């Protein structure tokens, strides 16, 4: 059995930021990561981040991951396990994980779940055909491993992920036939949408996919215009010739461990699904269990970093390590700035229902 | 198909390894996910669903969804989207839910 101050599940932006923050206060940290590398989904993000006050504005996600990893490796307070899948968290406060074919047991004084999220699926005929991929999968394949997902792609969803992945596809030399979006407006930032439109890719709002064509793999898709009640408009159906359908229809939190740990959960449409009730320091209803990043509510990498910092410093304070209170206020102020304005409205609404 | 020219990313050449899929020999890069090497070789169907025999490809590519389970070196239910490719690997379709006793 390994003893530590803070065990962190997930070495994405939230987990990495939390580990560094907790270590800075003097806490010993065990960081568990299912993948063989650190950085989580940052490693596939080739676009530059634009933040407000955030120090990472202007950097690409993949470089932010490297930046964090280098700091973590040098940090003697932080012990990293890669290839380690967290399995369960039990009543006696023991966390188990599978690592290199063995089970390891950890008894942490505090726990941070930063497990991230997974891709959502939408119902349409043949949505299980090979060639229907999640946007994250497309990013992994082309940005991390340099393999083209297909020759011609239909993108479903015009939120930031749909827009950014479309742009990345074009950068990789792959054709994007169209971006379709069920809502009446583009959900992502206009700066991304404009870039895509300038490259000649149509963004069709009030459109959805009815079926994917093909027997063994995607050979096309049937799309249609929909009305304000999301019902197909007769006579507005259209065949598109594509070999890949990329779904960018949102993410849902990977909250299984939090359910198992007995945290009080609440369904939040704005935050992507069931998320834990938390206080303003990201502690759940189970004392000593913290959350940060997409598992706390679907946002993006910059807010995940800030939440990670907040959860890390809060866990350290809980264990009576000395922290700077001004730093806590600064992180909270940065989060508030990030969530200000019309783009952050649904996040603010979602958080209002789960923060106690 | 490999991406050759990219304005931002460069993909390291890496060490080329041979592996077999359903008895045929393919090449891929050492350490990349088995699914990436198969995809590069044009193979989209990674298994068939146990009940309705529907073709399945990869979907999430982060080891969550279990769409890509295959038999690797005799071991069933391997998530090939997150399992690194090694020299001489034997990759096969899985029948049904996979037979653990069939492992070498």
Layout of helices and strands:
The complex is a heterodimer of chains A (356) and B (104).
Chain A: E1 2-9, H1 13-24, E2 29-32, H2 61-74, E3 78-81, E4 84-89, E5 95-99, E6 102-113, E7 117-119, E8 132-134, H3 135-144, E9 152-156, H4 160-171, E10 175-181, H5 190-198, E11 203-205, E12 207-213, E13 220-226, E14 232-240, E15 244-247, E16 251-253, H6 256-260, E17 265-268, E18 273-276, E19 289-291, H7 301-318, H8 325-338, H9 345-354
Parallel strand pairs in A: 1-2, 1-6, 2-3, 6-19, 8-15, 9-10, 9-15, 10-11
Antiparallel strand pairs in A: 4-5, 5-6, 7-16, 12-13, 13-14, 17-18
Chain B: E1 16-21, E2 24-29, H1 34-40, E3 47-48, E4 55-56, E5 69-72, E6 75-79, E7 90-92
Sum up the structure in keywords.
heterodimer, A: 356 residues, alpha/beta, 7-stranded mixed β-sheet, 5-stranded parallel β-sheet, 9 helices, 28% strand, globular, B: 104 residues, mainly beta, Ubiquitin-like (UB roll), 5-stranded mixed β-sheet, two-stranded antiparallel ribbon
Summarize the structure.
Chain A is of the alpha/beta class.
Radius of gyration of chain A (CA) equals 21 Å
Largest sheet of chain A: 7 strands, mixed
* Overall outline of chain A: globular
CATH architecture of chain B: Roll
Instruction: Round the mean pLDDT of chain A to the nearest integer and report it.
Output: 94
What is the string of helix and strand elements of chain B? EEHEEEEE
Beta percentage of chain B is 25-35%
Kindly report how far apart the N and C termini of chain B lie: 32 Å
One letter per element, helices H and strands E, the order of chain A comes to: EHEHEEEEEEHEHEHEEEEEEHEEEHHH
Radius of gyration of chain B: 14 Å
The helix fraction of chain B, in percent, is under 10%
Overall average pLDDT of chain B = 91
Oligomerization:
heterodimer
Strand content of chain A: 25-35%
Spans where pLDDT lies below 50 across 5 or more residues of chain B:
none
Biggest interface pair, counts: A-B, 35 and 36 residues
């Amino acid at each position: 059995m390994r003893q530590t101050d803070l065990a962190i599940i997930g070495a994405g932006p939230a987990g990495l930021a939390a580990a560094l923050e907790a270590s800075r206060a003097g806490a010993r940290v065990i960081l568990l990561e299912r993948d063989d590398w650190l950085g989580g989904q940052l490693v596939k993000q080739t676009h530059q981040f634009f933040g407000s006050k955030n120090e990472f504005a202007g950097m690409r996600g993949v470089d932010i991951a490297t930046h964090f990893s280098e700091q973590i490796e040098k940090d003697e307070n932080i012990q990293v396990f890669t290839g380690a899948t967290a399995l369960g968290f039990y009543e006696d406060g023991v966390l188990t994980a599978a690592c290199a074919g063995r089970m390891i047991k950890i008894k942490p004084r505090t726990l941070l779940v930063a497990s991230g999220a997974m891709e959502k699926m939408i119902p349409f005929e043949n949505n299980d055909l090979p060639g229907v991929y999640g946007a994250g999968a497309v990013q992994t394949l082309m940005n991390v491993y340099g393999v083209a997902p297909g020759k011609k792609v239909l993108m479903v969803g015009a939120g930031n992920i749909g827009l950014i992945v479309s742009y990345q596809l074009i950068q990789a030399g792959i054709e994007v036939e169209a971006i379709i979006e069920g809502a009446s407006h583009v959900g992502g930032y206009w700066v991304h949408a404009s870039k895509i439109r300038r490259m000649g890719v149509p963004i069709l709002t009030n459109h959805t996919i009815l079926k994917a064509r093909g027997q063994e793999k995607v050979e096309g898709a049937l799309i249609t215009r929909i009305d304000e009640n999301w019902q197909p408009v007769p006579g507005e159906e259209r065949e598109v010739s594509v070999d890949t359908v990329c779904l960018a229809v949102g993410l849902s939190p990977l909250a299984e461990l939090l359910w198992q740990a007995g945290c009080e959960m609440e369904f939040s449409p704005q935050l992507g699904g069931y998320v834990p009730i938390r206080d303003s320091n990201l502690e759940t209803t189970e004392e000593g269990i913290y959350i940060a990043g997409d598992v706390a509510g679907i946002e993006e990498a910059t807010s995940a970093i800030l939440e990670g910092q907040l959860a890390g410093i809060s866990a350290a304070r809980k264990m009576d390590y000395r922290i700077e209170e001004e730093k806590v206020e600064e992180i909270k102020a940065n989060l508030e700035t990030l969530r200000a304005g019309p783009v952050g409205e649904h996040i603010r609404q979602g958080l209002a229902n789960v923060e106690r | 198909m490999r991406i050759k020219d990219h304005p931002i990313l460069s993909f390291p050449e890496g060490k080329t390894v041979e592996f077999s899929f359903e008895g045929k020999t393919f090449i891929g890069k050492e350490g990349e996910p088995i699914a990436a090497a198969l995809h590069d070789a044009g193979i989209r169907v990674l298994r068939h669903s146990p009940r309705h025999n529907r073709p399945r490809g990869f979907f999430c590519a982060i080891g969550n969804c279990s769409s890509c389970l295959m038999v690797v070196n005799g071991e069933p239910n391997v998530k090939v989207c997150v399992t690194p490719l090694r020299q001489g690997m034997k990759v096969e379709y899985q029948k049904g839910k996979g037979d653990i006793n069939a492992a070498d």
